[in-house]
């Protein structure tokens, strides 16, 4: 007798995260890794003196702000997230507790590898205990301790690996390709150069018609400050070499320096505001003349982008 | 210094750790687990520990006696305990609490070593261990269950490249100085240690420190004075040195003493004339 399986039971091994499929997979874990890929890209790089994170922020709509993807854990540790923001909040709170606990009991900043291992251990538990689900978020963790700057990747499968450079999230393979081509120069790179490499990698994760702007780009740095590219008056953390985030107006100079290094116009492709204005005017004038073709607004936007 | 063991039925507590725990009948939690026992007084005790910073490191001295009240009960006890490569504890007070402390700290350092296998991060510094101890002692006294010791932590700070010496006791009291002593030593030896230290380094400690030989000489003098005047001490002691090279603990040694004058003493013990 042939047993009829309804089509929506694609896979009988995916509803229980603790049961292996005959192919040796834990499907819930694989799906969790997919959740990380749904999140927008995050990139991390490390030199012998610095570790940096670069993230592409998304906004959920016209009326929403761009979602923050960089979280400070302690003076010496910070993370970039890709995946479920709420899971990230749970894990980053736990990391903050661990960091504070170390400072209170030993008067010591927690070693970076250990704080990452502590969340990896939690994530592993979720893959082995019945009735739980894996975290749907991946981290890139930067930090510095007595052994220098570090970059780690944490993934919901319960692993924590250290990297020279790494990327996670949507279209992160493109960034990885860039990083793999260039990572050998990172070790001795000055901060400005490291950030430029990071921005170039981040740029590669963008869709064809998008570009990096002060709205969607945020950068976190750990390590000695560089007054040439950082506004030290604005950040005590930067002065001390602690974890600091540059975003919005704060990231503008870094973006300009990056565009100059690529021989591009310093102000970048004028999409957002300048692009919106002319197209709005066009639309208005078109309305005024009452002969706007149906495809005009979309076509118009594309054209203004191409022009600049 | 650590007083006599008081009788089991004594209701007066000289250390003022009031209220005394009482077995309460009919309380279910107690019925299952028995009454909670807290240390009310030390039993087997060690006396003074001395500490002194010198050129290139720090020295800590303690004798080998663990007394049971006024009885010199155990005469071969080491009260100096190394923790990792660059830290050493010198412990006075209750010896069973000291043994517990050793067990806990050794376990912690073992765990640290295991973690260091994967990330090569340096182990806990003397400062880190001292911070932990002061938190532990204060937390325990706040639970009315003190760890009945006074501890000197000596060490070498690898980052700052300087010696470390600090005190913490059963009340969670902490302080640090270039010369330190616990118990009777704080009265009898500390003035001698300071005198020797300040003779070279000055009151502000800016001058040169004692050499290794000078420091050892001062400590030996102090241990001798303590043996003469502290009835809970023993003329058999060890000196530990902690430098950038690590910890080394000497074999037990004794000071040359002179008792001839005792013949002329009157007024103590049985005398016929």
Short description:
The complex is a heterodimer of chains A (308) and B (273). With 308 residues, chain A is of the alpha+beta class.
Could you explain the architecture of this structure?
The complex is a heterodimer of chains A (308) and B (273). By secondary structure, chain A is an alpha+beta fold. Chain A has a domain at 47-260: Aminohydrolase, N-terminal nucleophile (Ntn) domain (Glutamine Phosphoribosylpyrophosphate, subunit 1, domain 1), CATH 3.60.20. Helix content of chain A is 39%, strand content 19%. Chain A contains nine helices and ten strands. Chain A has helices spanning 27-38, 85-106, 112-126, 172-182, 191-204, 236-240, 252-261, 272-289, 296-307, and strands spanning 42-46, 51-56, 70-74, 77-83, 137-145, 148-155, 159-162, 165-168, 217-222, 244-247. In chain A, the strands form two sheets. Chain A has a five-stranded antiparallel beta sheet. A five-stranded antiparallel beta sheet of chain A has the order 3-4-5-6-7. In chain A, a hairpin with a 2-residue loop joins strand 3 and strand 4. In chain A, helix 2 crosses helix 3 and helix 4 packs antiparallel against helix 5 (191-204). Mean pLDDT of chain A is 87; it is low at 274-308. Chain B is of the alpha+beta class and 273 residues long. Chain B is 30% helix and 25% strand. Chain B contains six helices and 13 strands. Chain B has helices at 28-33, 95-119, 126-142, 184-188, 190-201, 212-229; strands at residues 44-46, 49-54, 57-63, 66-68, 71-74, 80-83, 87-94, 149-157, 162-169, 174-176, 179-181, 237-243, 246-249. In chain B, strands 1, 4, 5, 6, 7, 8, 9 and 10 form an eight-stranded antiparallel beta sheet that branches. In chain B, strands 11-2-3-12-13 form a five-stranded antiparallel beta sheet. In chain B, helix 5 (190-201) runs antiparallel to helix 6. Chain B is globular, with a radius of gyration of 21 Å. The mean pLDDT of chain B is 90. The interface between A and B is medium-sized, with 13 and 15 residues. Chain A: This is Proteasome alpha-type subunits domain-containing protein. Chain A: Belongs to the peptidase T1A family. Chain A: It holds the Pfam family Proteasome_A_N. Chain A: Keywords: Cytoplasm, Nucleus, Proteasome. Chain A: Residues 257-308 are annotated as: Disordered. Chain B: This is Proteasome subunit beta.
């Amino acid at each position: 007798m042939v047993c009829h399986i309804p089509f929506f039971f694609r896979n009988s091994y995916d509803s229980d995260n603790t049961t292996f499929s005959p192919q040796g997979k834990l499907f819930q874990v694989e799906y969790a890794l997919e959740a990380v890929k749904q999140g927008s890209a995050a990139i991390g790089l490390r030199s012998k003196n610095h570790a940096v994170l670069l993230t592409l922020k998304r906004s959920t709509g016209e009326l929403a702000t761009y979602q923050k993807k960089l979280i400070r854990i302690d003076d010496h540790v910070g993370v970039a997230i890709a995946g479920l923001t709420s899971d990230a909040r749970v894990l980053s709170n736990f990391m903050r507790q661990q960091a504070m606990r170390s400072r209170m009991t030993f008067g010591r900043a927690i070693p970076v590898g250990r704080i990452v291992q502590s969340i990896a251990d939690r994530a592993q538990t979720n893959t082995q205990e019945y009735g739980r689900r894996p975290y749907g978020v991946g981290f890139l963790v930067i930090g510095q301790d007595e052994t220098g700057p570090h970059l780690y990747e944490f993934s919901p499968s319960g692993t924590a690996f250290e990297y020279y450079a790494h990327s996670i999230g949507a279209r992160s393979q493109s960034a990885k390709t860039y990083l793999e081509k260039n990572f050998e120069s990172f070790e001795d790179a000055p901060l400005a150069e490291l950030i430029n490499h990071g921005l170039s990698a981040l740029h590669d994760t963008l869709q064809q018609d998008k570009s990096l702007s002060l709205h969607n780009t945020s950068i976190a740095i750990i390590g000695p400050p560089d007054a040439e590219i950082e506004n030290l008056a604005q950040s005590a953390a930067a002065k001390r070499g602690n974890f600091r985030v540059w975003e919005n107006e704060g990231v503008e100079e870094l973006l300009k320096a990056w565009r100059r290094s690529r021989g591009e116009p310093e102000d970048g492709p004028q999409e957002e505001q300048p692009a919106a204005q002319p197209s709005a005017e066009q639309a208005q004038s078109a309305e005024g003349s009452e002969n706007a073709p149906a495809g005009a607004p979309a076509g118009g936007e594309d054209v203004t982008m191409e022009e600049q | 210094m650590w007083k006599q063991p008081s009788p089991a039925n004594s209701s007066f507590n000289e250390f003022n750790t009031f209220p005394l725990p009482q077995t309460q009948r009919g309380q279910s939690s107690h019925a299952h687990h028995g009454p909670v026992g807290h240390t009310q007084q030390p039993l087997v005790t060690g006396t003074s520990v001395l500490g002194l910073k010198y050129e290139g490191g720090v020295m800590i001295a303690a004798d080998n006696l663990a007394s049971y009240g006024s009885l010199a009960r155990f005469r071969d006890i080491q009260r100096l305990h190394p923790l990792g490569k660059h830290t050493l504890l010198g412990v006075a007070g209750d010896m069973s609490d000291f043994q517990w402390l050793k067990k806990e700290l050794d376990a912690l350092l073992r765990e640290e070593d295991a973690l260091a296998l994967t990330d090569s991060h340096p182990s806990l510094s003397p400062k880190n261990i001292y911070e932990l101890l002061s938190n532990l002692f204060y937390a325990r006294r706040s639970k009315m269950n003190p760890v009945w010791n006074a501890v000197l932590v000596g060490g070498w700070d690898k980052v700052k490249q300087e010696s470390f010496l600090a005190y913490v006791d059963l009340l969670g009291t902490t302080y640090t100085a270039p010369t330190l002593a616990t118990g009777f030593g704080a009265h009898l030896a500390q003035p001698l240690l300071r005198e020797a230290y300040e003779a070279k380094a000055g009151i502000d400690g800016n001058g040169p420190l004692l050499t290794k030989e000078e420091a050892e000489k001062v400590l030996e003098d102090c241990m001798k004075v303590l043996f003469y005047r502290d009835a809970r001490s023993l003329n058999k002691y060890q000196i530990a040195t902690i430098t950038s090279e690590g910890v080394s603990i000497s074999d037990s040694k004794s000071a040359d003493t002179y008792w001839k004058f005792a013949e002329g003493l009157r007024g103590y013990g049985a005398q016929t004339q």
